[in-house]
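URGENT: need a sanity check before tomorrow's submission.

F., can you look over the Eukaryotic protein record below? I want to be sure the sequence and structure line up before it goes out.
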Amino acid sequence: MTEAIITIRIIKNFEYRTVKNLVLQNIKLDIMTIGELKKIIIEKINVTPAFKLFRNVDYDTLKIYMKAHRSKTQNLIINLDNDEWILNDENASLSSCNIENETELSFFNREAYEAYKSHPDVMKWE
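Structure tokens as predicted:
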């Protein structure tokens, strides 16, 4: 059984670059599914005081941001390349989705992501 530490980048808003990290430990990659991971993340958002301002977003999508010891994307908010890294299969195990120890995942609203992807240079805080 493979256990891992995974960092979840919870993205509230793309244009304002509002992101907060959630570190999950002892995640069983062979057993846990994408759907189960989403439920755990939403539960953590709802009960952790640090995420109070992040509770008004309908989070529905996970995407691999980067894997350990590999190059990072130039975009600091989300990996706009590799849309095949979006984890759509709720019943797939994490290991079958090539998630490894110290992988970083982004958790966000898909509709907001698609809008941001069409104009990634728009930043509202500038």
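My own read: The beta strands are 3-13, 18-28, 61-66, 86-87, 104-108. The CA atoms of residues 23 and 29 lie 15 Å apart. If you see anything odd, call me.
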